[in-house]
C-alpha cells in the first residue's frame, strides 16, 4: 500500500491529521518537517501521497511537486480564500474539510495507485474493446467540455463509478448520454 507523507506548516496540525488518518486505518503515515525531508522519504518509499500546504518550511508546494517522483500524488490543504489549482494533477481540500471529505479524497487517491499497479501488470486486458472506446470518448468529452486534464477526467469517471455503483464503462456511457440531451 502507498504511504502518506504529511508536511503541513503547523506541526500540531500535521500530528492531528496523522492521528485522524491512522484512526481511518492507514498505517503508513509519516509527519515530516519540510519539503527536503519529503523528497528524501519519497525516494525511499517509491509511491504515495504527499499532504501539504502551499508554503512548506523550506519551499513552496509547486517546487515540491516539480521534484517529486511521478509515482506520488499531492493533496494540497488550502485556505478557503485561496484559488483552486486549475489544470494540474494536484488534488485540493480546504483546511476545514469534514472527515468524510478527507476520507473520500484519500480513498480516491489510493485507488489510483492500485489502478496504476494493475495497469502495469497488464490485468486491464480483460476489458472489452467497446468499453475502452466508450471510456476514451467520455474522457475526451470531459476534457473538452470541462477543461480537465486526462487524469482529472479519469478521476471524475472513477468517482462517478464509485458513487453510483456502476462499472467504469457504464459511467462513461452515462456521461456520453447526458451530453446528447
Short description:
With 181 residues, this protein is of the alpha/beta class. The protein is 55% helix and 13% strand. Helix 5 (129-146) crosses helix 6, helix 5 crosses helix 7 and helix 6 packs across helix 7.
Could you explain how this protein is built, in words?
- It is elongated and about 50 Å long.
- Helix 5 packs across helix 7 (168-180).
- The chain has 181 residues and is an alpha/beta fold.
- Helix 3 links the parallel strand 3 and strand 4.
- It folds into two domains: 3-120, Response regulator (Rossmann fold), CATH 3.40.50; 127-180, Orthogonal Bundle (Arc Repressor Mutant, subunit A), CATH 1.10.10.
- The longest helix is centred in the middle third of the chain and has 23 residues, at 99-121.
- The N and C termini lie far apart (41 Å).
- It has a five-stranded parallel beta sheet, with helices on both faces.
- The mean pLDDT is 84.
- The chain has helices at 11-23, 35-45, 61-67, 99-121, 129-146, 150-163, 168-180, and strands at 3-7, 29-31, 48-52, 72-78, 91-94.
Biggest β-sheet description: 5 strands, parallel
Please state how the strands of the largest beta sheet are arranged side by side: 2-1-3-4-5
CATH topology of the largest domain: Rossmann fold
H/E topology pattern: EHEHEHEEHHHH
Query: Which whole number gives the mean pLDDT?
Result: 84
How many structural domains are formed by the residues? Answer: 2
Task: Please write the CATH class name of the largest domain.
Answer: Alpha Beta
The CATH architecture of the largest domain would be: 3-Layer(aba) Sandwich
* Number of DSSP E strands: 5
Helix tally equals 7
Structural class: alpha/beta
Summarize the amount of helix as a percent range: 40-55%
CATH homologous superfamily classification of the largest domain: Response regulator
Shape: elongated
List low-confidence stretches: none
Strand content: 5-15%
- End-to-end gap: 41 Å
Our Rg estimate from Cα atoms comes to 17 Å
Amino acid at each position: 500500500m502507498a504511504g502518506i507523507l504529511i508536511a503541513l506548516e503547523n506541526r500540531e496540525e500535521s500530528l492531528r491529521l496523522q492521528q485522524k488518518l491512522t484512526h481511518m486505518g492507514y498505517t503508513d503515515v509519516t509527519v515530516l518537517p519540510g519539503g527536503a525531508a519529503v523528497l528524501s522519504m519519497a525516494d525511499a518509499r517509491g509511491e504515495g501521497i504527499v499532504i501539504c500546504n502551499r508554503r512548506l518550511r523550506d519551499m513552496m508546494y509547486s517546487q515540491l511537486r516539480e521534484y517529486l517522483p511521478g509515482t506520488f500524488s499531492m493533496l494540497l490543504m488550502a485556505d478557503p480564500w485561496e484559488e483552486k489549482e486549475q489544470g494540474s494533477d494536484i488534488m485540493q481540500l480546504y483546511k476545514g474539510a469534514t472527515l468524510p471529505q478527507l476520507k473520500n479524497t484519500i480513498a480516491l487517491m489510493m485507488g489510483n495507485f492500485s489502478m496504476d499497479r494493475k495497469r502495469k501488470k497488464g490485468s486491464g486486458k480483460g476489458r472489452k474493446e467497446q468499453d475502452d472506446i466508450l471510456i476514451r470518448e467520455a474522457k475526451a468529452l470531459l476534457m473538452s467540455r470541462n477543461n480537465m486534464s486526462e487524469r482529472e477526467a479519469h478521476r471524475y469517471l472513477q468517482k462517478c463509478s464509485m458513487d453510483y455503483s456502476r462499472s467504469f464503462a457504464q459511467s462513461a456511457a452515462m456521461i456520453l448520454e447526458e451530453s446528447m440531451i
